[in-house]
Design brief:
Layout (H helix, E strand, L loop, with lengths): L12 H10 L43 E3 L2 E3 L5 E3 L2
Antiparallel strand pairs: 1-2, 2-3
Length: 83
């Protein structure tokens, strides 16, 4: 006996509700939501610092200017317009 599953019709509100109930994902509630407002300490940005084990050559690109259109923006704040 070959029984086919009923076809899901996205235009049918009952089908959408049935599918939403069936596919509902439940997660454990958090004790306290994660946000900047609930942070206890000041953010120090430790993961953004240069690691002592990496060679200076890996960070050479950070000393180069960024180009946007016909302008070069240097890390020290200097800007040059190209011709």
């Amino acid at each position: 006996m070959n029984r086919e599953r009923p076809t899901f019709d996205p235009a049918c509100p009952q089908d959408r509700q049935r599918r939403a109930r069936r596919e509902k994902i439940t997660t454990a509630p958090r004790e306290r939501p994660i946000s900047n407002a609930t942070a206890r300490d000041r953010y120090d940005g430790a993961e953004l610092r240069r690691s002592p084990g990496l060679t200076p050559g890996r960070f050479a690109a950070f000393d180069l200017p960024s180009r946007m259109g016909n302008r070069l923006y240097f890390p020290n704040g200097h800007m040059e317009t190209l011709k």
